[in-house]
Design goal:
With 257 residues, the protein is of the alpha/beta class. The protein has a single domain, classed as Spore Coat Polysaccharide Biosynthesis Protein SpsA, Chain A. 39% of the residues lie in helices and 22% in strands. It has 10 helices and 10 strands.
């Protein structure tokens, strides 16, 4: 797979919500600055942190003109912070990254090349589970070549820190996240329900730091959240919800084995 020429890589807007992420955010930002694709703006949205995150962000912005810092004041949650970043984004492409995850250096370059190759609007990549220091554990979550809406319902395989959108093909309003639990999954389903296909790049380009992510590690809570999405957000009946929940559970367990 080839990579895009310089002239074919317009600005990428990268949105990172930051809440009490002082121990991690510098390393995360450095993983963005180390990208082989350097045409980006980095939007750091400080969401009411009680630690020294705000001061760290201001220092990072003073050192790199591509970094812009926004402040939420009181904490409103990751979806609100991402939505603020989406509104302020100036690039053709939009990417999300969580404040404690890391990108491998080719993440943006290879993602844009895949979008160009598929003429797609929505891309996601494989990723690797990392420990509390973001060291790869060797457990890689592989992704399919593409996902439709129905294919996505029984699998929450699209990880937020891997996605890239082409804003010439999607409106920002389609990417705004609802204020519900599992807002990222709900957003992917909203987009796919409109007929958009999500294209997968099965290369390990992201490290998912698992430390402190209690919601994802709490299995009963994860089951409750996905059930609520089926019943309330997708407005499914009990039997279809049970059908998709069983498929989701099998895949969720397999990803962690």
């Amino acid at each position: 797979m080839g990579v895009l020429e310089k002239k074919e890589t317009p600005l990428v807007s990268i949105v990172i919500p930051v809440h009490n992420a002082e121990p991690y955010i510098v390393e995360t930002v450095h993983s963005v600055q180390a990208q082989t694709q350097q045409d980006f703006e980095l939007l750091l949205v400080e969401d009411g942190s009680k630690d020294g995150s705000a001061q760290v962000l201001e220092k990072l912005a003073a050192e790199d003109p591509r970094i812009r810092v926004f402040t939420n004041g009181e904490p409103h949650g990751a979806c609100h912070a991402r939505n603020l970043g989406i509104r302020e984004a100036k690039g053709r492409y939009l990417a999300f990254l969580d404040a404690d995850d890391l990108w491998r250096p080719e993440k943006l370059e290879k993602s844009l090349a895949r979008l160009h190759e598929t003429d797609g609007a929505f891309l996601f990549t494989a990723y690797e589970f990392g420990d509390h220091e973001a060291k790869g554990t060797g457990k890689i979550v592989h992704v399919p070549v593409q996902l439709t809406y129905k294919q996505a319902l029984p699998r929450t395989i699209i990880f937020t820190s891997t996605v890239v959108f082409d804003l010439t093909k999607l409106k920002k309003e389609q990417i705004f996240m609802p204020q519900i639990t599992s807002e990222d999954t709900a957003t992917w389903w909203n987009i796919l329900r409109s007929g958009v296909i999500a294209y997968g790049l099965d290369e390990n380009l992201v490290i998912y730091r698992r430390a402190g992510k209690s919601l994802s590690s709490n299995k009963l809570e994860a089951i409750r959240r996905i059930w609520i999405l089926y019943r309330r957000h997708e407005k499914m009946g009990i039997l279809p919800s049970l059908y998709y929940l069983c498929g989701w559970a099998v895949r969720a367990v397999a990803r962690r084995l």
